[in-house]
Design a protein that fits this description.
Length: 439
């Protein structure tokens, strides 16, 4: 059986690192099993969902290297949901309720005051036909609740292990609002059946929904997918991420110039038993991927760690992975500078150091040393051995060694006291510019 997973964002905003982590985990399972990945827009809330957000989410996933095999929109399937909901009405599983939000609220408070759990009492289920007709004549419109069986729902969660939820303790969930619009619960279960979803992988905030959706799926005669609920990410402060987008959105990580694979590696390995290390493409992540490695404890996301990971990724990134993004650079330039950047955009700093203009820094005491060094500059052609040839000669001539020898040359040639190996930079700068900088 082909594995079919889905990522189901609501296009009511852009995705952040926590949502992206869900998408990446699903994508990794699809890659690992040669399966399929469905991108499903959960846009039943037509007032808050926009196409622009959906396009943004698609672009974010694309940047992360996730290429859905199929894209679906819940907003295009309302007629289908209506049919299914009617079937549930006929079967007595979906029943009309007339309580207002205020009435429900008061009832809950009374229950809690008496030490009872605030579970819906099914008052509307007990209405006679006459009572219902009377309420409707008053202009009340029903919302619709799913009548739970009230039994122990069990599944073997691929991350959390064996789960048991007794739906006797749950309120019958509202599936359809007064205005006929759908809450997330029913369309999601219908789609998971219709699209042949074999694995539902999502955040642990959906664990209770799973018990309800298993009941709904069974009521619809669908087969129950495997479920895996991962823990949620917290920020470095230990608080949940959900409400705080800002710099944690995938769009802003991209704008900050982070590498997609640094974000992917971080999101994929965070909260697993593997060390977080940079992977330049998905293949390494796929081979080590196992849902069982995901911890049940909340995983802490720290932007500073991501920045470090980004730098580490760049430090070993081969030329092929950047050549299309590095304006006018050469492989030799890339290999020289990659160890000295934290973001790819930092490369332009070193491009300036190579091509200039550079303001050489020469201390008063070093003037004659620099002039003497200039006179010893070997003729071209230059390669990475030129630096040693030159500085050996300078050393013999000046009697200087170590920092006293190298630092004045670095300052004169680059204007900086740090940077890539001069052995590699020297041939890139070239004799003509070196002569100018030493003058
Ligand atoms: N739209 C839901 C959410 O973003 C999807 C949950 C699910 O994967 O079923 O929370």
């Amino acid at each position: 059986m082909t594995t079919i997973v889905r990522f189901a964002p609501s296009p009511t905003g852009r995705i952040h690192i926590g949502n992206a982590r869900t998408a990446i985990i699903n994508w990794l399972l699809a890659l690992k099993t040669g399966g399929q990945f469905v991108l499903r827009y959960d846009d039943t809330d037509t007032a808050r969902s926009t196409e622009e957000y959906a396009r943004g989410i698609a672009a974010d996933l694309d940047w992360l290297g996730i290429k859905p095999h199929r894209v679906e929109w819940q907003s295009k399937r309302f007629a289908h949901y209506d049919e299914i909901a009617d079937g549930l009405r006929k079967a007595g599983r979906l029943y009309p309720c007339y309580e207002t939000a205020d009435e429900l609220d008061r009832r809950r408070k009374r229950q809690m005051a008496r030490g009872l759990p605030p579970v819906y009492d099914r008052a509307s289920l007990k209405l006679s036909d006459d009572e219902r007709a009377k309420l409707e004549a008053e202009g009340r419109k029903p919302h619709w609740r799913f009548r739970l069986d009230g039994r122990m729902i069990e599944w073997n969660d691929l991350i959390r292990g064996p789960q048991h939820i007794d739906t006797t303790g749950l309120s019958d969930p509202v599936l359809v609002r007064e205005d006929g619009t759908y809450l997330y619960t029913l369309p999601s279960a219908i789609d998971d059946i219709d699209f042949g979803i074999t694995h539902v992988i999502r955040g642990e905030d959906h664990v209770v929904n799973t018990a309800v959706q298993i009941e709904i799926t069974q009521a619809l005669g669908g087969s129950i997918p495997a479920y895996a609920h991962h823990s949620l990410l917290t920020g470095a402060d230990g608080k949940g991420l959900s409400k705080r987008l800002g710099s944690l959105s995938i769009a802003s990580m991209r704008e900050q110039g982070l590498e997609a694979m640094a974000v992917v590696s971080h999101a994929a390995l965070l909260g697993t038993s593997d060390n977080i290390h940079p992977c330049a493409d998905y293949s390494e992540l796929v081979s080590g991927f196992d849902l069982a490695k995901l911890s049940r404890a909340p995983a802490r996301f720290d932007e500073v760690e991501l920045a470090h990971l980004n730098a580490k990724l760049l430090h070993h990134l081969p030329w092929d992975a950047v050549k299309d993004r590095l304006d006018g650079g050469t492989e030799a330039f890339w290999l020289a500078i990659r160890g000295n950047i934290e973001k790819l955009s930092d490369a332009s700093l070193w491009a300036n150091v190579v091509s200039g203009p550079v303001t050489p820094v020469v201390a008063e005491d070093d003037r004659s040393f620099i002039a003497g060094s200039k006179a010893l500059l070997p003729p071209e052609p230059w390669d990475t051995s030129t630096w040693k040839t030159w500085t050996d000669a300078v050393k013999a001539d000046s009697g200087r060694k170590g920092k006293a020898l190298f630092m004045p040359l670095r300052l004169a040639l680059t204007g900086l006291d740090h940077g890539p190996e001069l052995a590699q930079l020297l041939p890139l700068i070239g004799r003509q510019r070196v002569l100018e900088r030493l003058s």
